[in-house]
Amino acid sequence: MLTRRDFLKAGLAAGACAGLAGIMPSVLEAKENGYNVLFFAVDDLRPELGCYGISKAKTPNIDALAAHGTQFNRAYCQQAVCSPTRTSLLTGCRPDTTKVYNLEDHFRRFIPDVVTLPQYFKQQGYFTQGLSKIYHPGLDDPASWSVPHWQPNARNYGDPEAIKAIDGEIKQLKAQGKYVPPGAVESDAKTGVNTKIRPGTIPKGPAWESDDVPDNTFADGMTADKAVECLKELKDKKFFLAVGFLKPHLPFVAPKKYYDLYADTKFTVADNPFAPKDCPEVALTNWGELRAYKGMPKNGAPMTDKIALELIRGYHAAASYTDAQVGRVIGELDRLGLREKTIIVLWGDHGWQLGEHGEWCKHTNFEEATRVPLIISAPNQKHKGAKSDSFAEFVDVYPTLCSLAGLPMPKGLEGTSLVPVMNNPKVSVKSAAFSQYPRPGNIMGYTMRTDRYRYTEWAEKGKAPVGVELYDYKTDPKGNVNIANLPENKELSAKLSKMLHDGYKAALVKGK
Ligand SMILES: [Ca+2]
Question: Are 485 and 456 in contact (CB under 8 A)?
Fold first, then answer.
């Protein structure tokens, strides 16, 4: 945790920088010319990237983007699952404001008049377009876009046998009257927008596949093709182009050449494949999302090292596949001479557990599920290639893009512009990052990452916590021991509990 002295020092520096931000040439220029925004949303990508120090990862295009912008080493999503995190980032509001905690509810049910990030840019004269997964599938927000959202039409697998098996299972379920397709449950009478959807029962295939097929066999290759086409069309417009990539979300299906990149790589399994010592049960999941795939351990059976290694390889191959698509789109931006007129942001919608704590997938409040890659590159920015350890939250993306584009700051945003950090990577705009995750029985787990600790409370509203966690990364870098309930930590836990309850506003560095 920051000492009071560090805190004051950071605050003073932040204040000085914030004062200068208003006369930064980039901001002034943006006001006159209007920078474009190229916005990459990557599904289930944790910071398993070369630029984040993962030497086995082969992600040269995202690494090159980081070398051209600011990489946030301590960025956190607000809830580690698709729709809630995307909704939070795209509205600039935290889950307790959007009320979107699941994959079924559209935020317009609860905050009908909220102006989303792309919608705000549209109101400010931008041409806004969304490709593939930006909002959660089935929960698009037409008000965000200048033209209807574009969706690639692709199968999840390249192997005809895998497709045949899934189609056969669907046919069987239909014959038994058990097939429930994904679809709308409620929609807005005026706009026709889905306000509630059901996920449906789509049978799953294998968890990974490496067929020798072209990139655009699958959705992400098609999306990169479409993005290249869009850039050509939009080059003379002021645009906000949102490009969503589905990998490395399960299943880890990528063309063989991306698997081949790792043919000689020696992967290892996580060295902490167990729940943290003294961890409350409520913090854990049974990683049901992964178990639904063919060949995965069923009914609570433990993961084997053999499968774990295949999954880790598959995750990397799928991430390399997406990295190549990011490279194709940025390559076109460069070819069109638009790089110096375009702000680029890339984020993975939440973290992903690759066996740490005995967990797979997301759906927890652990560090591995909440920590995310976030890279922002702006024309004329200072410190290109800086890697900042200052805290960043996904709710900060909206105000940061407004600030970089020179747009007036809308009211009601629950994040803070990260431009002071881009101007000086040592400056912090906040002393902690906040995330949350719900559990059955109206329980919400609130978690807070400080410089040294992660502190989490699981409780029903207004009731005493049913589980408390405290990890000290100074003495326990992998968060393997929950020390919340040790008698000697009573005072520390009470202090962190107060900080958690005081919330994000109290954690802002004053003078920002
Ligand atoms: Ca996701």
Answer: no
End-to-end CA distance of the chain: 19
8 Å CB contact between 117 and 397 = yes
Catalytic residue among 136, 149, 357, 363: 136
Ligand 1 centroid distance, CA of 447 (Å): 19
Q: Retrieve residue 211's tokens.
A: 């067929």
Residue 456 pLDDT exceeds 60: yes
The pair of structure tokens assigned to 244 is 């969503």
Q: pLDDT tens digits, residue range 347-376?
A: 999 999 999 999 999 999 999 999 999 999
Question: What are residue 438's phi and psi, to 5 degrees?
Answer: -85, 160
Count structural domains, the chain: 1
Residue in 77, 82, 230, 279 annotated catalytic: 82
Location of structure tokens 């901001």: 27
pLDDT tens-digit series, residues 463-502 = 999 999 999 999 999 999 999 999 999 999 999 999 999 9
* Residue 26 pLDDT exceeds 50: no
DSSP state of 122: H
Pick from 286, 352, 289, 285: nearest CA to 315: 352
Give the distance (Å) from ligand 1 centre to CA of residue 167: 25
CA distance 89 to 490: 35
- CATH of residue 233's domain is 3.40.720.10
Structure tokens at 288: 């049901």
Query: Does 478 fall in a domain?
Result: no
pTM: 0.93
Could you tell me the residue range of the domain that residue 102 belongs to? 4-423
Query: Is 61 part of a structural domain of the chain?
Result: yes
Residue 461 lies in a domain: no
Task: Give 380's pLDDT tier (boundaries 50, 70, 90).
Answer: confident
The span from the CA of 94 to the CA of 109, in Å, is 15
- Whether 264 is covered by a domain: the verdict is yes
136 is catalytic: yes
Amino acid at 331: G
Cα of 136 to ligand 1 centre, how many Å? 9
State the sign of the Cα–Cα–Cα–Cα dihedral 274, 277, 281, 284: negative
93 catalytic residue (yes or no) = no
Please give the Cα distance from 385 to 19 (Å, whole number).
23
**Rounded average pLDDT over 422-433:** 97
Q: What is the pLDDT of residues 321-353, one digit of tens each?
A: 999 999 999 999 999 999 999 999 999 999 999
Runs of H (alpha helix) within 206-348: 219-234, 256-260, 288-291, 305-335
